Amino acid sequence: MGLTISSNLVQSGVKKIDALHFLAGIQDTFAGNDPKISLDQANQTLQDFMMLENDELAKNNLEEGLMFHSDNIQNEGIIETETGLQYKIIKEGYGDFPSINDEVKCHYHGTLLDGTVFDSSVERRQAAIFPVNGVIQGWAEALQMMPVGAKWRLFIPSDLAYGEEGAGGQIAPNTTLIFEVELLDIV
């Protein structure tokens, strides 16, 4: 139970804990003792703690992303759009360009700055079909500039990805994302 609870806490964003107070709360609950604080106070304390942790993580991720983009633009072949999207052409395309109202078929591989894979149609070995206007802003912008057959590496700043909210799981608030996207077809 301890492993399950602590794993859930870590996945929820809890990075550190006062184990003695945590254990005291568990012991008081199971022993039927009066708790040191009310359940409302405990919930408010936890909510405040999580908000502070989330704010700190968001700030750090934003700074890391800005630094990354500042350094990345210096690399050979990197192009930056007015919005701040950066990309590198891996393979030239040969076909039509999708519009915002089209559906596209793509293979993609998404990672965090540290290389952690968070989603990959390549690893699933199944291309994805989705509307251009149904993806994050950085993808939608890039797809409309890519001809069918092109493969690009996208460096998407957080404001063109999931922003201050993040997307849960591995995509925390203000996370910069990297994708390799191959536009297979307009469907």
Descriptive notes:
- With 187 residues, the protein is an alpha+beta fold.
- The protein has a domain at 64-186: Chitinase A, domain 3, CATH 3.10.50.
- The protein has helices at residues 2-11, 19-31, 39-72, 121-124, 137-143; strands spanning 79-80, 86-91, 103-111, 117-120, 128-131, 151-156, 177-186.
- Strands 1, 2, 3, 4, 5, 6 and 7 form a 7-stranded antiparallel sheet that branches.
- β1 (79-80) and β2 form a beta hairpin.
- The chain is elongated.
Main sheet: strands, sense, barrel: 7 strands, antiparallel
| Residue runs with pLDDT of under 50 for 5 or more positions | none
> What is the CATH third-level topology name of the domain at 64-186?
Chitinase A, domain 3
**Basic shape:** elongated
Q: Which value, in Å, is the CA radius of gyration?
A: 22 Å
**Helical amount:** 25-40%
| Beta-strand content bin | 15-25%
Please tell me the CATH architecture of the domain at 64-186 by its name. Roll
The string of secondary-structure elements, in order, is HHHEEEEHEHEE
